[in-house]
Design goal:
The complex is a heterotrimer of chains A (about 270), B (about 325) and C (about 300).
Chain A: H1 16-19, H2 22-38, H3 42-59, H4 63-72, H5 74-87, E1 92-96, E2 99-102, H6 103-129, H7 132-142, H8 153-183, H9 193-199, H10 201-224, H11 243-265
Antiparallel strand pairs in A: 1-2
Helix pairs in contact in A: 2-6, 2-11, 3-6, 4-6, 5-6, 7-8, 8-10
Chain B: E1 4-16, E2 23-36, E3 41-45, H1 52-59, E4 67-72, E5 75-76, H2 83-89, E6 90-93, H3 106-110, H4 112-117, H5 121-134, H6 150-162, E7 168-172, H7 180-196, E8 200-205, E9 216-221, E10 224-229, H8 231-235, H9 238-243, H10 250-260, H11 272-288, H12 293-302, H13 305-321
Parallel strand pairs in B: 3-8, 3-9, 6-7, 7-8
Antiparallel strand pairs in B: 1-2, 1-4, 4-5, 9-10
Helix pairs in contact in B: 5-6, 6-7, 12-13
Chain C: E1 3-12, E2 20-30, E3 35-39, H1 46-53, E4 61-66, E5 69-70, H2 93-99, E6 100-103, H3 116-126, H4 131-144, H5 161-173, E7 179-183, H6 191-208, E8 211-216, H7 219-225, E9 228-233, E10 236-241, H8 243-247, H9 250-255, H10 262-272, H11 284-307
Parallel strand pairs in C: 3-8, 3-9, 6-7, 7-8
Antiparallel strand pairs in C: 1-2, 1-4, 4-5, 9-10
Helix pairs in contact in C: 3-4, 3-5, 4-5
Classes of the chains: A mainly alpha (about 270), B alpha/beta (about 325), C alpha/beta (about 300).
Chain lengths: ~270, ~325, ~300
């Protein structure tokens, strides 16, 4: 039942985007998202769209995988668009009872829709081409300056990677416990909301018990393997920039500059 | 002093009752004195709750003694401020294969120990490759641990310990959750490490078949070491083992039963081959030797003592039967 | 016949590139009161097989019958044979699961209640029984699995591994199943815990007449308790017969990654080397008797010779 859920949704392929340093991809994604909100005019969006299409082509990931992410936020997308359409004041082009649609509203709705869609597609290009581990490494490395102010950067990154390792195991466990309780006559499907929540107890209690036991075991196993925090730790796969990463950085900042240009000139 | 040595080791854990104030001290192990030589294959037997896991956790400084002392390669674990130095010397493999793999990719998991120890990157790669080769998992290096069988996962866990280059590996019931094939895989790997790499192995288990190749066996019961010796010495005491709620391998039990019925077999037979040979020998003897009592006892007096005694007993029994 | 599988096949993720055929045209009938050992290595399909017996999994092909009734077919004769079954005519799978109790591997992982007896009551409660009957069944099940009364009001999480397992088995037993399927009930237990559990199961079979299916890796255990052994390999039934019949194929079993009990090897080796022993001996007692007999016969024969 839960085995089909894919977390991190990495799509293995041999593309230039897959090979890029995860830090480049992470920063690039952040800049892309900022840019999507920066540009306002038609020319600006055309430019961003062109860049996005190029990235999709470069990633060698089938486009439908990116649409999957879009489907998940479809409702949010619709609500945002509708609110913008009706609630933006301006030149009325359609009116019925208390509802009125303004020209500005339509433009705003389209703009918000495009922004959200691009935001999701842009970030799924990153998650589809980067393994969860690379991503946590990138975050640890990018946020490491925060260690100066005693932010537990290493610990948070470690927690994230352990969570990623255990999510599939706990999914499978959920499946097993569910089956075991169904074999004891449990019913997870019928009844009202309150009853359904109550019915989840035989599933959730064992799941928590198991998760805590696993956490305990894992902590001990980590200690047994000399884990004593981030201090004095080396890395098996340290992140290293190569030539193409530098080129990518130059392109990313060029892209940002172009978007700022579009913003200023209101193109 | 051996690689692992304890003197009068005792450990209490606290048991909390219904009430916060209701705290009981429970002694998990008591007065344990052992000395393990470098390069040995040691087995520790005992039923659940006999204290064998508690003892194992002392060897890795996961627990520190309440009383007595534990030395790992000469370091007193209670006096070492940086416990991970002890842990590097005595690596540990646990029961549940899922709960001890940290990395999302096999090779990254094996690199976890060396990373913690601050080993330089290049050397981590050499160590990872070496240890994955030693446990025969090198071709799975890029896989997710979730896609491996139980036995393979345990071999990855062993590789993770080997990559730390420990003097000794403590395995706490590494096969308890595995199927027979997985169990064999793990045992083979461990024996190879012991033979080829001269790593000291301390195997904690309740599967008796797993200890027959050990150099030395300790049997634990209610926190004490109650028996120790070679596997043969231990398994010759079938009644005592049964009293301790332990099994003996089917072969040993069959030999023991036959011996009780008067067949002349040596004590502590451990393998199928051994038993078959012995039985054929007995069968030959019965064919070739005359039946009369006199000639028989003459013959046995020249043989080894143990079998002589057994022979006498068997003669007595058959005598009473007739 | 209480359970029957007819041409049952099951394919995981059918229609995708990942599809795996876990069961391949299984035909199997189980009579009431049998004690069956189910053997197969990990991934052989034995877990998939047992989940078909209580309707937790639906076969992709073939039919499953409980007491003659197709559990995926319609209860209405007019609808029989049709692919789609209307909702009201569906077989009551929830009640089937109370008749065919399934104890999963490491069943203690399913415990969730605040005390032992409430946890065991979960099954009967789901059956919609009244309070006194629920209580009676729970107590009976706990007694039959050998959980001492002083533990009944204790939290199940405070018990030892072996005790937890008994409580979990009692939880299924309390539904009064006619068939009890146990998936490796002794996994991870020490020898004492293992013997205790197996003896309890044997008692349930002998005293309550429950049909038992015991899934196990241990040939020794199965040889000691079962009167019929089913060997599953590659999604098919490789052997089905008495322990003696099945273990006589010990060389083939080995090729499947299984092994016969050690005693089987010993008696076979002895026979090959010229000793007149019964090669079908599977338990220690049988092997002992047979070897003793062979050795003593030799002596009598030789006695005869000296007479001549």
């Amino acid at each position: 039942m839960f085995k089909d859920v894919t977390i991190g949704q990495y799509y293995p392929a041999d593309s230039i985007l897959h090979k890029l340093d995860p830090r480049v991809k992470f920063l690039g994604t952040v800049i892309f998202i900022v840019s999507v909100f920066l540009v306002r005019g038609f020319a600006g969006y055309a430019f961003v769209t062109a860049v996005l299409v190029t990235l999709i082509a470069l990633s060698k990931v089938p486009f439908r995988f990116m649409l999957k992410g879009l489907r998940a936020i479809l409702i949010i997308l619709c609500i945002t668009m509708i609110f913008n359409m009706f609630l933006t004041p301006g030149e009325v082009i359609f009116q019925k009872w208390i509802f009125k649609i303004t020209r500005e509203g339509v433009i705003q709705a389209v703009r918000m829709g495009v922004r959200l869609a691009y935001l999701v597609i842009g970030s799924s290009i990153m998650t589809l081409t980067t393994t969860p581990n690379q991503l946590t490494d990138a975050m640890e490395s990018l946020f490491s300056p925060l260690k100066v102010v005693h932010a537990p950067v290493h610990e948070i990154a470690m927690m994230m990677s352990i969570a990623l390792r255990f999510i599939p195991i706990l999914m499978e466990e959920t499946d097993k416990i569910m089956k075991a309780q169904i074999a004891r006559g449990a019913d997870f499907e019928s009844g009202g909301i309150v009853k359904r929540i109550m019915n989840m107890i035989p599933l959730l209690v064992p799941l928590f018990v198991s998760a805590f036991r696993r956490a305990n075991d894992l902590a001990m196993a980590m200690e047994a393997r000399c884990y004593h925090g981030g201090e004095g730790r080396t890395q098996m796969k340290p992140l290293k920039y190569s030539g193409r990463d530098i080129v990518a950085y130059i392109l990313i900042f060029g892209f940002l500059a172009a978007c700022i240009f579009f913003r200023i000139t209101r193109l | 002093m051996g690689i692992i040595k304890s003197v009068k080791l005792a450990f209490d854990y606290l048991k909390y009752g219904e009430d916060e104030s209701d705290v009981q001290k429970v002694r998990a192990i008591d007065d344990v004195t052992i000395d393990i030589e470098k390069g040995d294959f040691i087995a520790i037997l005992g039923h659940n709750g006999s204290g064998k896991s508690t003892l194992a956790k002392h060897m890795n400084a996961l627990l520190l003694p309440t009383e007595g002392t534990m030395w790992v390669d000469g370091i007193d674990t209670a006096k070492e401020p940086e416990l991970w130095k002890v842990r590097q010397k005595a690596g540990m493999v646990f029961q549940n294969p899922d709960n001890q793999i940290i990395g999302s990719i096999v090779e990254e998991d094996v690199g976890f120990g060396p990373e913690n120890m601050g080993v330089p990157t290049d050397e981590i790669w050499t160590r990872v490759e070496e240890s994955l080769t030693k446990v025969g998992m090198i071709k799975h290096r890029d896989k997710s641990p979730n896609r491996l069988s139980g036995g393979q996962k345990q071999r990855v866990a062993i590789a993770g310990v080997v990559a730390m280059r420990p003097d000794c590996i403590v395995l706490d019931e590494p096969t308890a959750m595995l199927d027979p094939n997985g169990r064999q895989e793990v045992l083979r790997t461990v024996s190879e490490l012991n033979e080829k790499e001269n790593v000291t192995v301390i195997l904690i288990t309740h599967y008796m078949e797993e200890v027959i190749h050990a150099d030395h066996v300790f049997v634990m019961d209610s926190g004490h070491v109650v028996m120790q010796g070679t596997p043969r010495e231990i398994f010759s005491q079938v009644d005592r083992l049964k009293k301790l709620h332990l099994d003996v391998p089917q072969v040993t039990e069959l030999a023991y039963e036959l011996k009780k019925s008067g067949i002349d077999l040596p004590d502590g037979i451990l393998t199928k081959e051994e038993l078959v040979e012995e039985l054929l020998r007995v069968s030959e003897k019965m064919k070739s030797k005359p039946q009369s009592k006199g000639t028989r006892s003459e013959k046995t007096s020249g043989g080894n003592k143990a079998s002589g005694k057994a022979r006498k007993k068997s003669n007595e029994r058959e005598g009473t039967k007739k | 016949m209480i359970l029957e599988l007819k041409n049952v096949s099951f394919t995981y993720s059918r229609g995708t590139t990942y599809s795996v055929k876990a069961l391949d045209n299984i035909n199997l009938s189980i009579d009431e009161g049998q004690f069956i050992g189910v053997i197969g290595h990990t991934g052989s399909g034995k877990s998939t097989l047992i989940q078909h017996l209580n309707g937790l999994m639906q076969p992709t092909e073939g039919q499953v019958f409980y007491e003659g009734q197709d559990i995926w077919g319609s209860t209405n004769p007019a609808e029989q044979g049709k692919k789609k079954v209307s909702k009201k005519n569906r077989y009551d799978l929830r009640s089937l699961r109370t008749h065919v109790g399934l104890v999963f591997q490491y069943p203690e992982n399913q415990l969730f209640e605040t005390d032992v007896i409430s946890d065991v009551s979960f099954g009967p409660k789901n059956q919609g029984l009244d309070e006194t009957e629920i209580r009676r069944r729970a107590e009976e099940a706990l007694r039959q699995t050998g959980v001492a009364e002083k533990f009944w009001k204790v939290s199940p999480f405070e018990l030892s591994g072996g005790q937890k397992r008994r409580v979990a088995i009692a939880g299924v037993l309390a539904m009064n199943p006619k068939v009890l399927i146990l998936d490796e009930p002794t996994a991870g237990l020490d020898p004492q815990g293992r013997d205790d559990i197996l003896d309890q199961i044997k008692k349930l079979h002998d005293e309550r007449g429950i049909t038992i299916l015991l899934v196990s890796h241990s040939m020794e255990d199965v040889a000691n308790y079962a009167d019929r052994i089913i060997v599953v390999n590659d999604g098919k039934i490789a052997y089905d017969g008495t322990p003696k019949e099945v273990f006589s194929h010990y060389r083939e079993l080995e090729q499947m990654g299984l092994a016969a009990p050690q005693t089987t090897y010993i008696v076979n080796e002895l026979a090959e080397r010229g000793m007149d022993v019964d090669t079908t001996a599977t338990t220690i007692t049988e092997a002992k008797e047979s070897i003793l007999k062979a050795l003593l016969e030799k002596r009598q024969l030789r006695k005869g010779e000296t007479f001549v």
